[in-house]
């Protein structure tokens, strides 16, 4: 399990470290560069942990039940509940990012269907395809409604 050092860091230094990390991530120019950077800086365990959390968020959006998430992502009910509670309590950015990724995946699926071609069988595309089958376009409608409300509020 990933651990934080027991040696305390002054808060102002910790904030500077976090700011430097965010600057590094936002300076990356494309997916390939981002993947390279995160692969080098994060341990395999950290990468898997982050990826699973995001997958759980997307599956929750797509109305998967806990058992389906548990079986597909190989996590405990506690992990799913933690992400579900985070989404309900304060997960605004998680919601935004999760919704963006779902929209992108749905667009890709629709594009593949229109072309009649074969699509890659990645876990993400399979989950989104299955999720959109049982929630239909309602998830996209809800995302669009939230986006419209947010743009009006600005």
Biggest pleated sheet: none
Q: What is the H/E order?
A: HHHHHHHH
Specify the helix fraction band. over 70%
Number of DSSP strands? 0
How many helices? The count is 8
> Average pLDDT value?
81
Poorly predicted runs of 5 or more residues: none
Strand content: under 5%
Which structural category fits the helices and strands? mainly alpha
Protein model, in words:
With 154 residues, the protein is mainly alpha-helical. The protein has one domain (30-153). The chain is built from eight helices and no strands. The protein has helices at residues 11-27, 31-41, 44-61, 66-74, 77-90, 92-115, 123-135, 138-153. The longest helix is centred in the last third of the chain and has 24 residues, at 92-115. 12% of the residues are buried.
What key phrases describe this protein's structure?
154 residues, globular
Secondary structure layout plus pairing:
Elements: H1 11-27, H2 31-41, H3 44-61, H4 66-74, H5 77-90, H6 92-115, H7 123-135, H8 138-153
Helix pairs in contact: 3-5, 3-6, 6-7
Question: How would you summarize what this structure contains?
Answer:
The chain has 154 residues and is mostly helical. It has eight helices and no strands.
């Amino acid at each position: 399990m990933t651990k934080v050092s027991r040696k305390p860091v002054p808060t102002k230094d910790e904030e500077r470290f976090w700011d430097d990390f965010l600057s590094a991530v936002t300076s990356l120019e494309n997916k390939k560069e981002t993947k390279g950077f995160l692969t080098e800086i994060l341990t395999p365990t950290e990468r898997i942990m982050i990826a699973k959390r995001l997958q759980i968020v997307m599956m929750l959006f797509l109305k998967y039940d806990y058992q389906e998430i548990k079986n597909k992502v190989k996590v405990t009910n506690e992990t799913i509940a933690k992400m579900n509670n985070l989404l309900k309590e304060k997960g605004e950015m998680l919601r935004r990012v999760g919704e963006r990724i779902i929209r992108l995946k749905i667009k890709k699926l629709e594009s593949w269907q229109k072309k009649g071609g074969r699509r890659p069988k990645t876990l993400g595309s399979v989950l989104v395809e299955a999720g959109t089958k049982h929630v239909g376009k309602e998830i996209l409608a809800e995302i669009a409604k939230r986006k419209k409300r947010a743009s009006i509020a600005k």
